[in-house]
Amino acid sequence: MKPNRIYNIACFTLLLFYAVSCKKNKTPQQPVPVVPEEEVWDGSYELSTDIFPNPERGFIRTFSVYSETQPVDLSRLQQLRGENTSLILIVFYFDKFKDKSLSTAQLTLIQNNLDRVRQSGLKTILRFAYTDAMSGATAGDAPLNIVEEHMDQLAPVLEANKDIIAFIQAGFIGAWGEWHSSTNNLATTENQRKVITKLLSVTPQEIMVQVRTPLFKQQIYNTTAPITEEIAYTSEDKARVGHHNDCFLSGGNEYGTYSNIAQEKAYISNEALYVPTGGETCPPTGGYSPNCREGQKEMKLLKWTYLNLDWYPATIEAWKTSGCFDEFQRNLGYRLVLHSSDIASQATVNSSLAIKIKIANKGFAPLYNKKDTYLILKNTANGQFYEIKLNVDVRKCKPEGSLSIEETLNLANIPVGDYQLYLKIADSNADLKTKSEYSVRLGNKDVWYTDYGGINRLQHQLKIVTN
Question: pTM of this prediction?
Answer without folding.
Answer: 0.93
